[in-house]
Design brief:
The chain has 189 residues and is of the alpha+beta class. Helices cover 25% and strands 22% of the residues. It contains five helices and seven strands. The protein has helices at 2-8, 23-34, 53-59, 100-114, 127-133; strands at 45-50, 83-90, 118-122, 140-149, 155-159, 169-170, 176-180. It has a four-stranded antiparallel sheet. Strands 5-7-6 form a three-stranded mixed sheet, with no helix packed on it. A hairpin with a 5-residue loop joins strand 6 (169-170) and strand 7. Helix 2 packs across helix 4 (100-114). The radius of gyration is 17 Å and the shape is globular. It starts with a helix and ends in a 9-residue tail after the last strand. Bound molecules: flavin mononucleotide. Residues 10-11, 13, 64-66, 120-124, 155, 168, 178 line the site of flavin mononucleotide.
Length: 189
């Protein structure tokens, strides 16, 4: 089951924007992050939830989408995320950035997948604009944004070819292809 969930947990970037996600759903997802591992169990992560059109519209243009898809500026109106979770580090709890946010992101995205949703980790963020737009106090470091929605695209995993190219690409049918290295190529003997 966990393998199926992980295989289906691709980075989704096009959504049924009209399929709203309510705040309770976002709270359930953050609760999965809350229960996840944290270095020294310090738990420095805090979260901003967004699931209303006005707040979503503020966040969307501050995010960078699919850098390898050079001709694609990101999801068009109608295919944009229905919700976002902004992952913050409370620097009054811990100053240096660990890996807690990666673990939290995976917990949230797997939980979203289980609910029939999907999403994408976004680290390309206009952080100053997001900070002022959402009035985020300086004690919080902006780490990543999780874009969430009901996926509207097919994403498949391909083996990395002989040329070793790991760049994802989109075919003429709009299917998003993600090359993954073979198991034997990542285990060091
Ligand atoms: C730390 C991290 C940062 C990422 N930042 C972005 C981003 O800014 N924009 C984006 O479109 N995707 C971003 N992604 C998604 C990756 O592009 C994606 O994970 C990768 O292409 C592999 O696809 P998969 O998630 O379906 O396996 C990020 C992923 C990670 C783990």
């Amino acid at each position: 089951m966990i393998r199926d969930l992980i295989v289906s947990n691709r980075s989704y970037r096009r959504f049924h924007q009209e399929a709203a996600i309510d705040e309770q759903t976002l709270r359930e997802l953050v609760d999965l992050a809350r229960l996840s591992a944290s270095g020294h169990n310090v738990q420095p992560l805090k979260y901003i939830l967004s699931c209303n059109p006005e707040k979503n519209a503020l966040i969307f243009p501050l995010l960078g989408w699919a850098g390898y898809l050079r001709d694609w500026p990101g999801p068009s109106e109608g295919e944009r995320p229905a919700a976002y979770i902004v992952v913050l580090q409370d620097t009054e709890i811990r100053r240096d950035i660990g890996i807690d946010h990666g673990i939290a992101a995976q917990s949230i995205l797997l939980g979203a997948r289980e609910k029939g949703l999907g999403g994408c980790i976004i680290a390309t963020i206009k952080k100053d604009a997001l900070r002022s737009g959402l009035s985020i106090p300086t004690r919080y470091e902006i780490l990543i944004v999780l874009a969430l929605g009901k996926p509207k695209e097919k994403v498949v995993i391909d083996p990395v070819g002989p040329d070793g190219d790991i760049k994802y690409w989109r075919d003429s049918e709009g299917v998003h292809h993600v090359p993954k290295r073979a198991l034997e190529d990542i285990i060091v003997r």
